[in-house]
## 1
Amino acid sequence: MINMIILDDHPLVRQGIRMIVSMENKINIVGEASNAKEALVIMGQTQPDLVLVDLNLGNDNGLDFIQHARSMGHHCKYLILTSSATSNELRLAQSIGVEGMCLKEALPEDLLYAVDVVARGRKYYDPVFMDSLMDTAPTTGELAFAELTPKELEVLISLGKGRSNKEVASELYITEFTVKKHVSQILAKLSLADRTQAALYALSKGLVQFELAK
């Protein structure tokens, strides 16, 4: 049985997803949320196997939510559901290890297949998204960005939010010494002079869009 949470700010979309997954006996919806804060509460109560996450959640962003949830210890699987995604969003999703991305316009059987694939520990990215990535030739800067590890990416995002080393360490559950090592690696890989430039870089890449409500 796959215990799943639906995170989408549109009630009709959640209802539609629930109707689709009800066709599959091995999927159990343990909760629904309209925003990131609600989802985190439900996750703490139910410990789901998979969270189906809308990429655009009004004031929230699905990718930011996933990173925040993981930083809080919610290491379940995540499947993004969206009508569209930019090349930067696709690369960020891959960089932070998001297990899957599925189109909202997908056929019911395609969504069920995506859920099954991700739940079994494999990755599922809709062919449309993969074609988009292949059609966008990365620049030198994008190649350098792609070399960042998932943890370095998390640190970079925290820098973009103006976090101090102490705050980053607390947020990501690592030591300040480790934070300093990650910052040095980030600056070296991206050819940046200091953490201020790193923060500006994070903003320019669209990595920092909002602050999740605590």
## 2
Amino acid sequence: MPGLTIGDPLPNLQVQTTHGPIKLHDYVGNSFTIIFSHPGDFTPVCTTELGAMAAYSEKFSELGVKLLGLSADDVESHKAWIKDIEAYCNGCKVTYPIAADPDRRIIKELNMVDPDEKDSSGNQVPSRALHIVGPDKRIKLSFLYPASTGRNMEEVVRVVESLQRAANHKIATPANWKKGEAVVISPSVSNEEANRMFPQGYKTTDLPSKKGYLRFTNVE
């Protein structure tokens, strides 16, 4: 995918938001941060998405994760729209900042430009994109959805929990993994190292190849 993607450093942009001006690196600090763009204020799917983010904001806070919304609309539009979002999600409060980008500069630098959609004036609009940024200010994961498909917040929570565990242990999470389930030990870890690193033990899956690379353990 062209432009900013997994492994790249987050540009340290200054952005205007509903909480005032912020520098991206200062905002991220030492936390995981979710930066998510939406095609436009006062639109149906985007209203449901930002409402869902508001509803999940306490969960993200428990995980130590910050949120930052973004679209090409201006700050005053965002502030007016927040009333609709909060009404839709039954009074959930939009406590996270929403950044404005009327010049379309930020969405270009963050690789959040929709390749197909344009507004009524023919201007580019943000894609329905989401970057998860690590404390090292690098992109750890990116989602890109078409304008017609809203994001699944349970999946966003799941991948945050996966990334946080992988950052603390030499593990990866298998297909369909959920919090509380077993993880797999990285192939770069020898059995001797695994015995030291995972005193709780691990189970090696018996495979036809007889290669003991599929090792499951549990971590918090």
